[in-house]
Amino acid sequence: MVPGPELEAVEAELPNHIQRTLAEPGCISFSVLQSPNDPSRFDVEEEFYDRQAFEPHQRRVKDSFWGNITKNVKRYYEIKGETPNDE
């Protein structure tokens, strides 16, 4: 949930954050949808090739402008692990 006073900055920077994330090595997909019922809520789905691709993404975000403007955002995560190959 994005605090009200920070919502405008998050909305303005979101396209840049999406573009940067999609350009990261190992990013398979990344989507962010703002709730039509609650503009302070954003649903994020991201998929990375593996944990070794995901961890640099987390570090980049933490140290970025995006990380700074979203530092007060409450986040709820569900991280799904790698699935074994059927080989």
Strand-helix topology:
Layout: H1 7-22, E1 27-34, E2 42-48, H2 51-62, H3 65-69
Antiparallel strand pairs: 1-2
Number of distinct helices: 3
Order of strands across the main sheet:
1-2
Radius of gyration: 14 Å
The whole-number mean of residue pLDDT values reads: 91
Helix content: 25-40%
Which H/E pattern describes the elements?
HEEHH
Q: Which regions have little confidence, pLDDT < 50, spanning 5+ residues?
A: none
Distance between the termini: 41 Å
| Oligomer kind | single chain
Principal-axis shape? globular
Computed structural class? alpha+beta
Query: Tally of extended strands?
Result: 2
Give the biggest beta sheet. Answer: 2 strands, antiparallel
Strand content: 15-25%
Structure, briefly:
38% of the residues lie in helices and 17% in strands.
